[in-house]
């Protein structure tokens, strides 16, 4: 049996067509069903539905053989103990700094609100900017509006969330997409099944790009 960890929401929605192309279609729909383990049209493959930030943990411990996670989540988690063989090119966005549209450029020691503490620390250090990082779990865009922080580090896609909150994108830190990750022991023990799945996925993705 192969277990694949995916998060509900955009990763699930965008991964579904890729998985369907390799014959993996969940039998239940996580939107309407409270099951956390989903059987699929392939008897040897099941999906587990977890929070996006938990995907590296499940795969690292071998609770899932494979997982689909954003590069942002993988970098922040520090997923060195996982294989990351495939860029699925889904859930694409940019990790950026953003500030109030009228705010001056950063000067001196600045306060930064983000859920990406490690990435932000590394980024500001590389820029020679002294930054105090304030860890948040969501609604980062609010922080500059209420004086909690000078700027934020967050994901930007259309820019609608920034615009709706009078913020503007400033520095582009990196491009983000979702990756397939694999447990190292599973890669050995279930090599045939995993290698053939990787091969099929890779061919389909290459055709699209
Ligand atoms: P969460 O509940 O953790 O925010 P999401 O489904 O919003 O879960 O995000 C999962 C992953 O999708 C993120 O780690 C990121 O890689 C990507 N992502 C998040 N927001 C966007 C977005 N607005 N557009 C495209 N991809 C995104
Ligand atoms: C993400 C991200 C931004 C927004 C950016 O939030 O944290 O707030 O998308 O996308 P945009 O540039 O197209 O507006 P998400 O929709 O995932 O909400 P949540 O993580 O706070 O639930
Ligand atoms: Mg989100």
Automatic annotation (TrEMBL):
Domain ATP phosphoribosyltransferase catalytic: 51-202
PROSITE patterns the record matches: ATP_P_PHORIBOSYLTR (PS01316)
Main location: cytoplasm
Enzyme class, spelled out: transferase
Pathway: Amino-acid biosynthesis; L-histidine biosynthesis; L-histidine from 5-phospho-alpha-D-ribose 1-diphosphate: step 1/9
Catalytic activity: 1-(5-phospho-beta-D-ribosyl)-ATP + diphosphate = 5-phospho-alpha-D-ribose 1-diphosphate + ATP
GO molecular function: ATP binding; ATP phosphoribosyltransferase activity
Listed EC numbers: 2.4.2.17
Keyword terms: Amino-acid biosynthesis, ATP-binding, Cytoplasm, Glycosyltransferase, Histidine biosynthesis, Nucleotide-binding, Transferase
Subcellular location: Cytoplasm
Gene Ontology cellular component terms for the protein in this record: cytoplasm
GO biological process: L-histidine biosynthetic process
UniProt free text on domains: Lacks the C-terminal regulatory region which is replaced by HisZ.
Family in the record: Belongs to the ATP phosphoribosyltransferase family. Short subfamily.
Function (record text): Catalyzes the condensation of ATP and 5-phosphoribose 1-diphosphate to form N'-(5'-phosphoribosyl)-ATP (PR-ATP). Has a crucial role in the pathway because the rate of histidine biosynthesis seems to be controlled primarily by regulation of HisG enzymatic activity.
Quaternary context: Heteromultimer composed of HisG and HisZ subunits.
Protein name: ATP phosphoribosyltransferase
Organism: Crenothrix polyspora
Gene this chain is encoded by: hisG
